[in-house]
Structure formats: C-alpha cells, structure tokens
Amino acid sequence: MKKVCVYTLALCLVVSSMPSAPVLAEDDGATLLEERCSGCHPKSITTSKRKAPKQWQATVSRMKHRGARLTEEEMQTLVDYLSETFKP
C-alpha cells in the first residue's frame, strides 16, 4: 500500500511539472513564419515585403517546392498571416 501511495505521488508530481500544451504552429501564422522560414531566411526578408494575397500564395508555394516543410493547412495559415500583416 505504501508503494502505491509513493508511485501515485510521484506520478502527480511529474504530471504537474509538465509544461502546458504548446501553441500549434498550424494555428499561428507568426509561429509558422518563425519556425519554418527563419531557418533559411532572415526575418527582415519577409517583413520588408508587401504583397497581395495571391502573391503571398505564390511565394509560399514556391518555398514549399524548394523544401519548406508545410502542410496544406499550414500553408493557408501562413498565407493568411502574411497577407494580413504584410499587405501593400
């Protein structure tokens, strides 16, 4: 019985010390930009551009064909974020 209590207490401590769930990249365009684009590009290359949504779509599609790891949902989230944040 004592072992069960010790194991239960230890499990509670481990679970309570775990970090909260991270923000999913596909839900946050800024996070996607940071995680998936900054490995190859300095942030300034994106923040200095001003494009219409179709232009951002073309840019993100081109980057995916060049090796950017993005799902279709992530691509749309990123295009939406870029289109709203860096519009002409």
SSE order and pairing:
Elements (H helix, E strand, L loop, with lengths): L1 H16 L11 H9 L5 H5 L5 H13 L6 H14 L3
Write a structural description.
This protein has helices at 2-17, 29-37, 43-47, 53-65, 72-85. The protein has a single domain (22-85), classed as Orthogonal Bundle (Cytochrome Bc1 Complex, Chain D, domain 2). Helix 2 (29-37) packs across helix 5. The longest helix has 16 residues, at 2-17. It is elongated, with a radius of gyration of 20 Å. With 88 residues, the protein is an all-alpha fold. The model has no long low-confidence stretch (mean pLDDT 80). It is built from 5 helices and no strands. 65% of the residues lie in helices and 0% in strands.
Give a brief rundown of this model.
With 88 residues, this protein is mostly helical. 65% of the residues lie in helices and 0% in strands.
Query: In this structure, how is the largest beta sheet organized?
Result: none
Task: Extract low-pLDDT stretches.
Answer: none
CATH architecture: Orthogonal Bundle
Overall geometric form: elongated
Considering the chains and any ligands shown, give keywords for the structure.
88 residues; elongated; 0% strand; mainly alpha; single chain; Cytochrome Bc1 Complex, Chain D, domain 2
